[in-house]
Structures are given as structure tokens and as C-alpha cells.
Amino acid sequence: MSISDQIFAQHAGKTRVESGEFIECDIDLVMVHEQLGGRIAPEYMKLNQSKIWDPAKVFYILDHWVPPPDVRAAKMHQVANEFAQKYKFKWNMGQNLGICHQVLPELGFAQPGNLIVGSDSHTTTYGAFNCLSTGIGATDVSVIFSTGHLWFKVPETIRISFEGSLGPKSMGKDVALSLLGKYRTDGAIYRGFEFGGSGLKNISIAGRMSISNMVVEMGAKCGIFESDALLQQWLMAHTHPSYTSPNSRVINPEEDSNYCDNISINLVDIPPLVAKPYSPDNVIPVEELGQIEIDEAFIGSCTNGRLEDLRIAAQIVKGKTVKSSVKFIIIPASRQIYLDALQEGLIEIFIRAGGVVEYPSCGPCIGGHMGVLGPNEVCVSTSNRNFKGRMGHPDSQSYLASPAVVAASALHGYITVPDTKIWGNKK
Hints:
Elements: H1 3-12, E1 22-26, E2 29-32, H2 35-46, E3 58-60, H3 71-86, E4 91-92, H4 100-106, E5 115-118, E6 132-135, H5 138-147, E7 149-153, E8 156-163, H6 172-183, E9 191-196, H7 205-214, E10 222-225, H8 229-237, E11 261-266, E12 273-275, E13 283-285, E14 296-299, H9 307-317, E15 327-330, H10 335-344, H11 346-352, E16 356-357, E17 378-381, E18 397-400, H12 403-412
Helix pairs in contact: 2-3, 2-5, 6-7, 9-11, 9-12
Binding site for [4Fe-4S] cluster: 302, 362, 365
GO molecular function, one term: 3-isopropylmalate dehydratase activity
Subunit structure: Heterodimer of LeuC and LeuD.
């Protein structure tokens, strides 16, 4: 069995599962954010339940509209907070820690072998930590709140084996975009990705998170990485003193696992890439794009707002000034990353270069606030989606790229690759 097969089998109380099989699984952890106040709370209240199945297995955080930019968002937060207090959520993280998909693993809640679901499509991010994680809707969250179980269809698995190392100007984001170029937005619908190979050691944890984050853009159910020494080192540095899951254990694929597709990718062959409007799979090498002038350059989101991303961007803009016509926006993915960046002097570098550093939130990625695009404005962004109107006005355009490309583009005023190789320590 593949990694996802084994995790599904364990949580369904079975020794073996087959792709296409329908099963009911116990859930280790459910993550909820603003959708708790927007849709989940109203649905759950219809059930007239006096409690939820296990308040110690709910991770609650507000991150999309933080702080609330308008009355509607403020009311949504009020409803969510009241619900969390009424049902006594143990892990009530509030709205001061950052973006859910960074904070949850950062605090030690993403553990190998676990089955984690969340009220957000990019819950797939936690697959970087050798667990099975996937996004679900409001009704499914209500079912879990009531029973602790949820049904799944066991997906087929696509095996990706990495070889070699990334080139001097490429990042994990470029790996994600290269996969989108191959599988498109419909090439992995309800399939799971499994990542491993000899080149895995050359992809940082931050890079792995970017890749797992974006598998959902191909329609995938999950994107799980094999465990290795780099992951074990990261996990040891990110533990929670009061949280452990009884199902936590490293899971790697069995020999002769059954895959619907099995390919090898040499990382050195992946150049800096960009996804043109209006789809994440509209991918070409940056150097083939031509000179596309920009109005905004955004580094952040649950895809790329990690310390590694900020370090690389700071290296590129240090001692320089961004184009005066460009809004250069940087949003660290968590409060801890913000503090670390402050300590390392990265925030000062961005501000002196003409950037605007904002508090951890999804912000402009969803067209929410803190950098919304106006009519005909063009943005190069590290986020995961560039659908029409995603970041603001329907006539605006968003190009997806790595933090290195975004930082270089902010300096030049058009989308381009860095002049020199990026920070080399990708671990």
C-alpha cells in the first residue's frame, strides 16, 4: 500500500484498503477558521447538539481577515468566537498567531501518520509532515463535530520521485508550478500524490509545504511526503508540550506499492517558472514570459510566507530600492516568523527597500484586504491561485511565482528572475 492507503486503513480499522473503496475513518484533528463563523456554526446549530465529540481534537484559528477589515468580517469573527467558547475548544488559537497552514504544524499539531481535515482546501499542506491531510466543507465538519468520523473514497496514488538538486534560482514553488504544468488543474482529480526519492533531501521543509499546499490546484485529495532525517529534525524542533496523537508514527510506502502513475523528476531541470492569468496551470519559464510590467509584488500566503522565503527575498532586495511604481507587500505567514524575521533584520531590509510589511493574515491572496488589486492592475504573487478576480477587481491580473522571482520583479518593475543565485541553504 502507498502511504495514504496505510493511513486510511489504520483510521478505518482495517488491515488493507483498495483505491475506489468507500470507508469511514476516525479523525485525529479538525482545523477550522473563519468558515466556522460563516457556514459551520449555522449548520451545526441546526442539529441542536449540546456538545461536540471531542473539543481536544479541534484546532481553531482566525486568519483570513485579520484584523477584520469591515463589519461583515467582524461579525463573522464574533460568531466563530462564541461557538468556540460555547463548545469549549481546547486549542482556541484566536487571531494573533498567523495563517492556519503555517501555525498548525509550527506548533506541533501536524504529526506523521495522522489523518487531519480542515475547513480550507489548502489543508493538504500538512502532507509535508508525512500525514494525510485534506480540505472538507461545512457539512462534513458538522458531521465530524457530532460523530468524530467521516467517510472517504480511497484515492489512487501518483508517485513522484525526486532526483538531484534545485538550480541556483529555483525554489519549492517552482516544483509545484512544474507539476501543475504537467498535470494541469484537472489531471489529478481525487487522486493522491506521494513524494519521495533520493532528491528529497534537497527540498527544504518550506519547499515541501509549498508543494503539498498546491496539489489541490491539480484536483488532488492529498500530497504526502516520505519521512526522512530532515523532517525528523524539523519535527523535533516543533513539538507541543500538551499535544500528542496516539496514531502518530512514521509511514513510508510498502514495497511494490500500486500507483496509477509513477514518474521521476530531476530537480535541476526545473527553471524559475510563472503561472499566467487566469489559471495556476498556465505555466511557462519566467525567461520566456517577455517583459510584463507590474503594479504589485506580493510575498506571503499559506504557500510562501515562511522564514526561508523571507530570507531569500531579503537577500535579493538588500541595499536596493524597489521600483517606485510597485507596491511591494510582504506578509510573514505567522507571528513566530515575523519575530524571527525581526531578529534577523529582514523586516528592516524590506522597509528600507520600499516594502510594506504587514501582520500575518491571508490578506491580498483572497482579495480580502491589505493589498487588493484595482482595475487593470497586474500583480506577481507567491500565492496559489490566480483566477479572475481572485486578488481584487475582475479586470486585474495575477501571476504566480516564487519569492525569489517576486522580489526581483519588485526591483525591476516587471516579472523577472534574480540577477544572481538565491540564498543557497535550502534546508
